Amino acid sequence: MTSNPVTVTVAYHVVPGREAEFHSWGWALLGASAQQSGFLGGGVLVDKEAEWHVVYRFASEGAALAWENSSARAQWDARGEPLGREAGRRRVPGSKAWFDAQTLTPAPPAPPSKWKLWFVNMSAVFPPVLLFNLIVLPYLGGLNALVRTLLLCLCVTALVTWILMPRLQRFFRKWLYPPLQALRGRHKRRTA
Fold first, then answer.
1. pLDDT tens digits, residue range 76-114?
2. Cβ proximity of 176 and 113 under 8 Å
3. Where are the beta strands (DSSP E) in the chain?
């Protein structure tokens, strides 16, 4: 056994609708583990995949194993069985390894499909082009075709870039990036 601190993360798949009970159970479990020698702290977390984690830290591997093999821990595990099932366990010795493991950058969301981008772009470009052709071009009939086209491009591009596209991207955000929004939505529902 080592005297280095050890952090243990236990992942759980929680039964839908029992999240609040699981949250209370997790904190009560940590309260019980705080009575054990060498306990340094812990917490109950929800990650982006909607798994719940009970994280606890002990001063040594021996202290962590003593808690995990205790009859008190077995009783707490039995109380938690109806709330969720254990999905995995991870042990990280020392503090530097724990913090290094947590600094991984998440993968960026996948770009939307081309047809969705086409639809949003058409929704942004078509209305100002139509309005420009109906309202402004009749007054510019005497101008050179090159100048008329330049004015059309300048006006429509400015409207689309600074006014329409930012609003349409916000409006269609859930449709363009569904996995990202689904994860954020789950987190908001759980924390509320």
1. 988 988 888 888 888 888 655 545 555 555 566 778 889
2. no
3. 6-14, 39-46, 52-58, 84-93
Tens-place pLDDT, residues 61-77:
888 888 889 898 889 98
Using DSSP, how many helices (H) and how many strands (E) does the chain show? 9, 4
Sole residue written with tokens 């042990």: 91
Q: What global pTM score does this model have?
A: 0.48
Whether 56 and 33 have beta carbons less than 8 Å apart is answered as yes
Determine if residue 41 is left, alpha or beta; phi over 0 gives left, psi from -120 to 50 gives alpha, anything else beta.
left
Q: Alpha-carbon distance 118 to 116, whole Å?
A: 5
What letter would DSSP give residue 66? H
Q: What is the pLDDT of residue 181?
A: 47
Radius of gyration of the chain (CA): 28
Query: Computed from CA positions of residues 41, 18, 53, 48, in that sequence, does the dihedral angle turn out positive or negative?
Result: negative
Nearest to 55 by CA among 99, 111, 4: 99
Q: Domain boundaries in the chain? A: 6-102, 114-176
Q: Which CATH architecture has domain 6-102?
A: 2-Layer Sandwich (3.30)
